[in-house]
Design brief:
Elements lengths: L17 H23 L1 H8 L3 H29 L1 H21 L3 H31 L6 H24 L4 H20 L12 H7 L13 H31 L5 H20 L1 H8 L1 H22 L2 H16 L1 H9 L7 H30 L1 H18 L10 H7 L9
């Protein structure tokens, strides 16, 4: 188990906390795998409970509500009691909540279970990112992007497991019990006991979400428009990430006619492309610059989603979803880097503003897609993500950094990532 964080003056002489880094990396992987286990069996649960697209969308709104309620509370608790304790509690609740989704006998119970599941997921997101920030402070180089890449790899593993178990005919109940037991047990033994023992306020973004009393004064001034534009970029990306997570399998199953095992691979294709591009995102940003990178990312996501929606074949949808994952992967790190370098605005409040707008998109995207699909069909409903992807191309100039800060940002562009999608 790691010792308390060293003081700033001693940080250079103290070896980096390798054990804590491995524990946090494993926690990111487990979080992604549990989440992907859930989304990979959404079509089966929809059929089991006989839910329409609209009803499923309302149920997913319950998950969003649970996360929105728990995230500020988790931020406050991480500051007050330490993020390692919040990780331990929320990870246990997260694993326990997964089987409840499959055991739900009806729509009302399913919605309640989703609220609980969303609350545990949101709390773990906040706490594990606070852990990642504390561990990164002890390293001489940025390592945040690697943590989030492992979340994507966990999503790939969870989706692959879900597809395989669906193909073998295992019910969602058996699948969720297996995933919760295996992943929860690995986390309890190898990750949770070795987390970084932090007791000080960690990420100013998390602290500002937890309590307004910890926020630095936010001098909007002439930069208000730029922060709102950056927040809009984050919103456009993350509404698409939420839609891909919860509706890609449903689209493959119901629109393209793919088998359930192939349908579960939709999120896997999205996840693996995102993971690969997150691992090489820093190098791409260094060569292309944030503006050109976001423009190309928006174009790639738009073309990929258009292919998936217009062609109508399972293989085209899988290729298209992979292109969407590659396009979305590097945008959020660039947005947070730009927000942290807005002149005249404290980085904490600026990042809190942009992060909140982005995560709001991730939460409202899935229920919005479901409600619109009820009226116009799932294909046209997902077409709204084409519009938000094209918005990235138009809004990319908002990521242009002040000339005096471009060199600094290239070394720190991934230090303030808050959401792992």
């Amino acid at each position: 188990m790691e010792t308390d964080p060293p003081s700033p003056g001693d940080a250079a002489s103290v070896p980096p906390p390798v054990a804590a880094r491995r524990a946090v990396t494993l926690l990111f992987f487990i979080n992604g795998a549990l989440f992907a286990s859930w989304v990979s069996r959404i079509p089966a649960l929809q059929q089991k409970l006989d839910l329409s697209h609209g009803t499923l969308g309302l149920a997913l709104l319950g998950m969003a509500t649970g996360a929105l309620v728990s995230m500020p509370l988790a931020g406050w608790c991480s500051t007050r009691y330490g993020s390692h304790r919040v990780c331990q509690l929320s990870a246990a609740l997260y694993a326990l909540a997964l089987p409840l989704l499959a055991f739900a006998p009806g729509t009302a119970a399913f919605m309640i279970a989703l609220v609980f599941f969303g609350a545990a997921h949101g709390a773990l997101d906040v706490a594990m990112n606070a852990q990642a920030v504390q561990v990164e402070k002890q390293y001489p180089r940025p390592i945040m992007a690697a943590f989030h890449a492992w979340f994507s790899l966990g999503g790939l593993a969870g989706a692959a497991l879900g597809g395989s178990l669906a193909t073998w005919g295992l019910s969602p109940v058996g699948h969720y019990l297996l995933a919760a037991g295996l992943l929860g047990g690995v986390g309890a033994v190898f990750a949770l006991p070795r987390l970084f023992q932090d007791t000080e306020p960690s990420n100013p973004t998390l602290s500002s979400l937890a309590s307004t009393s910890t926020r630095a004064p936010l001098d909007w001034g002439p930069e208000k428009r730029r922060l709102l534009l950056l927040g809009t970029v984050a919103f456009c990306v993350m509404i698409g990430e939420g839609a891909m997570a919860d509706w890609s399998a449903v689209f493959l199953l119901q629109v393209t006619g793919a088998a359930e095992g192939i349908a579960a691979a939709g999120y896997a294709a999205f996840s693996i492309a995102m993971a690969v591009c997150r691992f090489c995102g820093d190098r791409l940003a260094q060569h292309l610059g944030p503006v050109h990178l976001v423009r190309l990312s928006g174009l790639l996501a738009t073309v990929g989603l258009a292919l998936a929606l217009l062609d109508g074949r399972p293989v085209s949808a899988l290729i298209g979803f992979a292109a969407v994952g590659a396009g979305f992967a590097t945008v959020v790190p660039q947005v947070f880097s730009a927000a942290g370098n807005v002149p005249g605005v404290a980085s904490g409040p600026a990042l809190a503003t942009v992060t909140t707008m982005g995560y709001l998109g991730f939460l409202i995207g899935p229920p919005f897609i479901g409600l619109v699909a009820e009226a116009v069909g799932l294909r046209l409903s997902l077409g709204t993500i084409l519009l938000t992807s094209m918005m990235l191309i138009l809004l990319a100039p908002a990521l242009r950094l002040p000339s005096g800060r471009r060199r600094r940002s290239s070394a720190t562009k991934n230090k303030s990532i808050f959401v792992p999608i």
